[in-house]
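Dear Dr. V.,

Thank you for agreeing to look over these. As mentioned in my earlier message, I'm a first-year student in the group and I'm still getting used to reading structure tokens, so any feedback on how I've presented them would be very welcome. I ran two proteins. I've put each sequence directly above its structure. The first is here:
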Amino acid sequence: MKKVLFASTALVATAFAAPNFASAQSVSAGNADISFGGYARWGVGYNEDRDEETIIISRFRLNINASVETDNGLRFAATVRGQADENSDGTAGTFEFGGARYQVSTGGLRVRVGNISGVYDDATGFAHFDGDLGLEGTIGISDTFGFPGAAFGNGAGDNGILVNYAIGDFTVAGSYVDESGIDGGLGTDDEWQVGATYTFGDYTVGALYGDDQDDEFWLVTVGGSVGAFGFAALIGENDANVDDNDNGEGDIAYGLTVNYEFGAATTVLASFAGGGDADSEAFGVGFVHSLGAGTTLRGMVGQDTDDSVKADLGVRFDF
């Protein structure tokens, strides 16, 4: 008989998130544990460049993870993600599962294959997503850098490999994706990334270098907190973002987010991003207010890199 286990886990509060609380449910089946988790969000979003400027925005995300640990301490796992978002016209989108990601880990070593994230998108300590504003996170410090490469999620994904090794507060990682598929063969239209992060006290620094179909990119981030204040900063260059310069290279992109925690429940944030290949800077202000039990009220107003005004307001709960 399957045994149902209920476990409650306190999420670690970061410099750019109000404290919250989430519960996860796991099912024991034979030698394996199957866990379910994710979040749901909904509210109202405004974008002056959209045909329907004001629409109901929503997302339901479900992660399903199966894992087993061998007698010698090796942990094997597999994960799939399903997600439903609103459509651009405001109608409700359909729920869709993505490709599977597989993992083996022991000690500080973790190896992932399949529908992976590259080093840039993997949770290795880079601060480029810290402080994304509002319910949808449509404005943040990486807006002018340009997203390079593979990202785990729903929908079709590129097959690749990601290796991550942590030694105390120091982490190194590398990833490779063959974006052309089987017909192209290894080395055709491929993407690779290498990076490292180091945490000291309340601060984390990270550096990354990669190549996506012959477009090179590099990135340096730093984030941390001092009392009730927090910050994340980014500087990088992506050759895919060639603007009006004549040297065939991308312009330097940069960004900064700062926040202040008012008491235990409310965090106010301000974000700015410039450079890169953007027509204009991206900037805005937002807030996160904890309602308890893993539920937060979130909102923002700002301008994106196309000089378009955006705003949103809504709730999110993690499960």
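The second protein is here, in the same arrangement:
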Amino acid sequence: MTNDPVTISVPATTANIGPGFDCLGAALTLYNRFTFSLTTDNDSPVVITAVGEEADRVQTDSSNLVYQAFVQFYQAIQQPVPPVHITIQLGVPLARGLGSSATAIVAGLVGANALAGLPLTQQQVMQQAIAMEGHPDNVVPALLGGCRLAATKLDGGWEICEVPWHPDVAVVVAIPNFELSTAEARRVLPDRYSRADAIFNTAHLGLLIRGLETGTDSWLQAALQDRIHQPYRYSLIAGYKPVQSAALEAGAYGLVISGAGPTLLALTAASQAEAVREAIASAWASAAITATVYILHIDHRGATVSFEADPISA
């Protein structure tokens, strides 16, 4: 166990990526950072300070998700929960489909593990994170980095497969200034799907994985189609159709909903990334919607732990 402050940096994530509903996710080069400092004030078990854009919206009491994960970790190892001061530096927008809740869960668990002297393996921490989030597509890449496919094993556990991402496949992320709750986005989904839709998504997920690995244009253009979640969620995102048309006209392989939305994600050749970024920003501006549009990369490190200036792998 250490009394030194520990800082956890956790990347944003994009989940689903078209046909990979609830099983495929990737870490992006956008980060939340969390510093944990143990205290001796037993009368104040947790003090939380948030800085950055939207900091005023962060819960600063024991209901905060970072602290809930922190507590759950100590309960799992059957040790008393130490008093702690948590500083949250926000870089991932809240409730936009970029895995902000996953960063909180991963940070709470990884931070507690570091402070407790690493009693749990990365695999055990991952299992805890999946149990808290309810599905693996955001928390797994947030913890491990890269693009990850998750599937259940015969014993009910999780098998995690890294999906190679070709360096020429660029990511353009468009974040509008409105929110869409995951609960609302899930409410619009049907309870049942046809055999044809299941086959369609199975085929396109396989093609997407090969397209990401090879960077093959025609494969990626076809692969980003989906019949499980996106057709039911388009109408929840103002300006979606004009943005999609603009992205495709600028050379994007396709445009998908990031996670539950409303953030949209375009995949494109690196040479077209700036043109796609400008086209998306212009299309949303024409619809009187303010949006921040980034060209991002795949983060391959995942959550990192730093006791000093230099981070180490979680």
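From my reading of the second output: The chain has a mean pLDDT of 93. The longest strand covers residues 20-38. Does that match how you would interpret it?

Kind regards,
E.
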